[in-house]
């Protein structure tokens, strides 16, 4: 990551000791962290690591991201049938997110009442405390400023005498919304579709809302199991079908397909139906449909069936003894 060859060699030879005398700004002057990590917004159980627009490195080097913070992202699960994976198309998504309270228009105050500026912080929403320290042999005086949220107005800069009953003074309410997303052909299991600007609103005035991520899953289908772009199906056949072979009509995503069961088919035999699976995302290839054969052993026999099985047993060659 070091653009200067001498600095890179010094770091390779001595580690951090080799670049100890170089400031962070000079060290990473030509490294664009916004390009490396821009647009990423990770959520680790509520711990904001700041991987958005280089925020993590901005904190290390004393630089702050311009503008108020973005709102949090929302994830919603969307289950679609396998037929939608084949055709693609529009699906409706319903989700809940915070929006401006219509009763108070986002002020948090009861309709008809007024807000007044917080006298404790003079409307800034912050409390600043200064302390003076002396540092070094020359007794250089250092002024340290500690900025915290104003406890009187909770950082809002205004005092609400009568909170809005609809939003309890927060200015926002949870509202159910719906929108239509376009499902691409061959959408993969667990793929996330991003809808910009439809996440939670920013907690700071003027901040942009987060994004909505629609996580796509396939609905359970009693006919098939999905494995990527391949489909699997279990088909049960009788003993005579397994021994003599037969023809079977099995379902597929494009209607019924005739399958030839070979003679002497063993339990667990897998038949492959080429290009009868799901389409590949972003490509023209199509997966396969695999049919696994299960041989059903009859639990109850009629007199005639038992007689026939006994005749078959009699035709079998006796096992040679030792």
Describe this structure as you would to a colleague.
With 322 residues, the protein is α+β, with helices and mostly antiparallel strands. It folds into three domains: 5-60, no CATH class; 74-218, Chaperone, DNAj Protein, Chain A, CATH 2.10.230.10; 225-315, HSP40/DNAj peptide-binding domain, CATH 2.60.260.20. The protein has seven helices and 15 strands. The chain has helices at residues 5-14, 24-27, 33-37, 55-60, 82-87, 239-244, 303-315, and strands spanning 74-80, 89-100, 115-117, 126-135, 140-149, 158-160, 172-183, 192-195, 212-218, 225-227, 230-238, 246-252, 255-261, 270-273, 289-296. The strands form six sheets. The chain has a four-stranded mixed beta sheet. Strands 1-9-8 form a three-stranded mixed beta sheet. Strand 4 (126-135) and strand 5 form a beta hairpin. The longest helix is centred in the C-terminal third of the chain and has 13 residues, at 303-315.
